[in-house]
Structures are given as C-alpha cells and as structure tokens.
Amino acid sequence: MNLLIYLVFVPLCVFFGARWLDRRYDVHGSPWLLTIACVIFATATFYPSPLIDGQNTQFMTHLLGGGVFVGLLWVYFMPLMRKLSWWYKAVILYAAVSALGVLNELYELWAHENGIITVPITDASWDLLANTLGALIVFVIYYMMKRLFKQR
C-alpha cells in the first residue's frame, strides 16, 4: 500500500495538479521537466542509501525524491517568479522543501504508528538534511546553467 502511494498516487497527483496550475496561471513550464521530476520521485525508493552511524537510512531517497524533486518543481514554476531576486527564489525553494519534508516525516510517523510501514523512523534529521541538500544541488545547477547560457 505504501509503495503504491509513492509509486503512483503522489506522482500522478503532482503531475496533473501542476499541469492544471500551469494552464490556470499561464506558467508555460516544460512538461518534460515535470515528467522527469515525477519519475525521480516515483523511483526514489529504489536508490541505495549509505549507512550513517551504522544505521540504515533513506538518505538517497530523500536527496533525490525529496530535494531534487521539489527543486525541479521549483524550476518548473520559475516563470511565475521571474521578477523576484535570486535570494527570494532561494527562500521560496527552502520553504517548499522544508514544508514538504516535514509533511513527509509526519506521514511516515502516521504510517509507522498504524503499521503501514515497519522500518525505523529514527532518521528524520538525516532525511530533512538530504531534502535540503537535494534542493541546494538543483539551485546551484540552475544558476550555473543560467550564467553559462547567458554568457553565450
């Protein structure tokens, strides 16, 4: 059940929800970027993660399926933020990845307490760090690419 939520339900809701917002607010985001973001999210559960302090973690799952996913959604909706300064865009990205990361951790707690997932949930701090690092990676790459293509 939990795997079905991460593999199908969330990516489809995000994809169609973002496309609806795209049409409603005339975003003109790339459907390919949105598709890549949703595929990364759906497959993130299968990425191997390192042991941290001898404990199994979901670091790569959160780095890619949390941070990079939210970062790509941020890039998708970038046309709505074109008049904002870079630091304000960074604050929006950090707020989005933090809010969605905490929401995910609350879901994990609920699912654990109700027997839906049986893995330990003691790695919340590492999960939130991984979410933030993933978003930071997208932020840095976005501005590096923007600067590189601006110089040409």
Q: How do the helices and strands follow one another from N- to C-terminus?
A: HHEEHHH
The beta-strand count equals 2
Instruction: State which percent range the strand residues make up.
Output: under 5%
The major beta sheet can be summarized as: 2 strands, antiparallel
- Average pLDDT over all residues: 93
Q: Please state the oligomeric state of the protein chains shown.
A: single chain
Model regions low in confidence, pLDDT < 50 over at least 5 residues = none
Helix content: over 70%
Shape annotation: globular
Provide the fold topology.
Blueprint: H1 2-25, H2 31-43, E1 51-52, E2 55-56, H3 59-76, H4 86-113, H5 124-151
Antiparallel strand pairs: 1-2
Helix pairs in contact: 1-2, 2-3, 3-4, 3-5, 4-5
Would you write up a description of this structure?
This protein is mostly helical. The chain has helices at residues 2-25, 31-43, 59-76, 86-113, 124-151; strands spanning 51-52, 55-56. Strands 1-2 form a two-stranded antiparallel ribbon. β1 and β2 form a beta hairpin. The longest helix has 28 residues, at 86-113. The chain starts with a helix and ends with a helix.
